[in-house]
Amino acid sequence: MFSTHPEVKDYFNLAHQGPNGAQPRILAYSLLQYAKNIDDLTPLTAFVKGIVEKHVGLQVFPAQYDIVGSCLLTTLKKMVGEGATPEFMEAWKDAYYQLANLLIKLEADRYAEVEGTANGWKGWKPAKIVKIEQESDSVKSFHLQFDDGKYVTPQPGQYVTVKTQIGDDIETREYSISSEFTDEYKEYRISVKRLENGKASNFIHDNLSVGDYLPITVPYGILKPAEVKETAPITFFVGGIGVTPTVSLIEYYLKQGNKVTLHYSNRNDHERVFAPIFEKLLKNDNFKLYEYVTDSKLPATTDAKHTIAHHRITEDILNQLTLSPDEHYFVLGPVTYMEVVTGFLTLSKVDNERVHCEQFGPTHV
């Protein structure tokens, strides 16, 4: 597809392609689940909503579906060989375009929704970098402002998609809005971790300066649930850079009156970010912070509100937690970290509707 239609490369992270890449597995998984549930897509509602949100964040439009469909069917025919009868191929073509038309309709509705919000915009809007902060050895925060001073008020936990021109290539990446929660935004802050071999992240770290412009989308993302009662406890399990969307979420729920606990894991002191923000939040009686820093020179503490432990969060630690029947859980971070925590919550028979996840890194299926 990339050789015959190079224009679609802008919509993909090429590091996630190839035989062992995450993107082909996600596409295969999506089609398999769709085929299994073709008579009733209700079980796929959450999955489909996630795809729609991902696509609108990347500014995917109907023309791309024709390209993907044509290449997909060509590949399927080669894989199946003699079994790819005209009837077989026609059935898969009908199935693909049924799914494509469903997504196109839902995405059109989502585009219309965000563009109709106060100060909403269509496509890409240039944002000026007005300040850069070195949060840690590998994380920089970029403060972004619009020349017209008009901002969409993001939902806590949302992200913007950023477009960069790197040589002849356009790279698009989603970065969580790490700004502190407010009712009136005068800038957006995104916090970018430098990834080993990360084409976009390394370019952003090494080449962008104050005064440069970054094209960004309207804020997207559906991490925050529609409604959580102010009496419900909120617990965050966060690994590494997964902390970026939690700042606004924590502040939002504290403002609402919820009791909030953050379990925050890092490999070393150099990866810890937002320490001043958390120090401020700890002044709120409803906030507790448990840190797990594997390689740390910070003194270990067992304070009732702020604990620092020199080890990973483990299943033994998780099993000692007291779970409330109305508690909501946010799990954010790398896939291996999330598997440990979500596995514990599943074994603890926590209702899926009270578990809210966002993976950092290529989606895993």
UniProtKB/TrEMBL annotation:
GO BP of this protein: cellular response to nitrosative stress; nitric oxide catabolic process; response to toxic substance
Enzyme Commission numbers on file: 1.14.12.17
Entry annotated with the keyword tRNA processing: no
Residue span(s) of domain Globin: 1-108
InterPro entries attached to this UniProt entry: Cbr1-like_FAD-bd_dom, FAD-bd_FR_type, FNR_nucleotide-bd, Globin, Globin-like_sf, Globin/Proto, OxRdtase_FAD/NAD-bd, Riboflavin_synthase-like_b-brl
GO molecular function: FAD binding; heme binding; metal ion binding; nitric oxide dioxygenase NAD(P)H activity; oxygen binding
Keyword terms, alphabetized: Detoxification, FAD, Flavoprotein, Heme, Iron, Metal-binding, NAD, NADP
Gene3D superfamilies reported for this sequence: Globins (1.10.490.10), Nucleotide-binding domain of ferredoxin-NADP reductase (FNR) module (3.40.50.80), Translation factors (2.40.30.10)
PROSITE patterns given in the database record: FAD_FR (PS51384), GLOBIN (PS01033)
Cofactor (UniProt): FAD; heme b
Start and end residues of each FAD-binding FR-type domain: 122-226
Family assignment from sequence similarity: In the C-terminal section; belongs to the flavoprotein pyridine nucleotide cytochrome reductase family.
PANTHER family: FLAVOHEMOPROTEIN
Protein name: nitric oxide dioxygenase
Organism: Cyberlindnera jadinii (strain ATCC 18201 / CBS 1600 / BCRC 20928 / JCM 3617 / NBRC 0987 / NRRL Y-1542)
